[in-house]
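ESCALATION

Customer reports they have been waiting on this structure for their group meeting. Please prioritize. Original submission:
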Amino acid sequence: MAAQSKKTIYLIDGTSWLFKGYFAVDYRESIKGVPNNAVFGWCMIAFKFLRLYQPTHVSVLFDAGLKTFRNKIYPDYKANRGLPPEDLKPQFKLCQKAADIMGFHYELRKEFEADDLIASMATLYEKKGFNVIIVSVDKDLRQLVNENIKILDFKNEVILGVNEIYQKMGVYPHQVIDFQALTGDAIDNVPGLKGVGEKTAIEILKLNIPILKIIKNSDLLNSSKIRGLESLKNRLKCSKDEYLLSKELVTLKSNIKSDWSVKNLKYRKINKSKSSLFFNNMGFTRMVKMSENYYE
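Update from on-call: job pushed to the front of the queue and completed.
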């Protein structure tokens, strides 16, 4: 008897789709005067996803707010990011409603980022024997990639596995956490280690020596090809706290508990009456027709 092929679950970064929609679509409003260009863009991306990938199991994960548990660890985490534009604020909940209307399981959780929910769900479903496809280009998620967990660059319709991550970054997925802890992240305001850029981090990680060992004994770097080695060795001597803090900030939570049963994450398809009402109220009349291929 031939072995059955593994099922696939898609885990979508719903917040990233929202921002893509907001910046890609000109300002528009619902019949009640509510801004909805991001919602329009979100739904168009979702329809394209359904058409191309026809998922049997899928979940859309959203950020729940600006503050997470990481801000308790480091108050300046993402402090350099401004508030969302006023016309975008009402569209967060509308995109969540759109996800539900379109038949997707969706979730957001206070204190956590969408990436943490994706990490926990990916870990759980890998153990359940699924192939996991993460729909996002967020570099933080690259730490999750392995033989069973891959990333879909949806815009370019490219799957990123272990080798593709290495080709892009110069490090393997299991090294991504240390890579980000060493280099920091200006966008998320993760400090990293002073003076350690991407090229230096790659050379350090090529040695396959635990970073804390290198910090304790920087002479372990003597066989590397790092420029300005002596200066780096001196800086590393007092960088333990910065490394541990940065590593904690960039490490995704993979043990969040929730009712993520296979049944709950099955794609439900689109309810005709609810979707027609929603899309007509939004002024998305073309989507009423687009929904016909996905009705329950």
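Sent to customer with the following note: The domain at 8-170+254-284 is CATH 3.40.50.1010 (Rossmann fold).
Escalation resolved.
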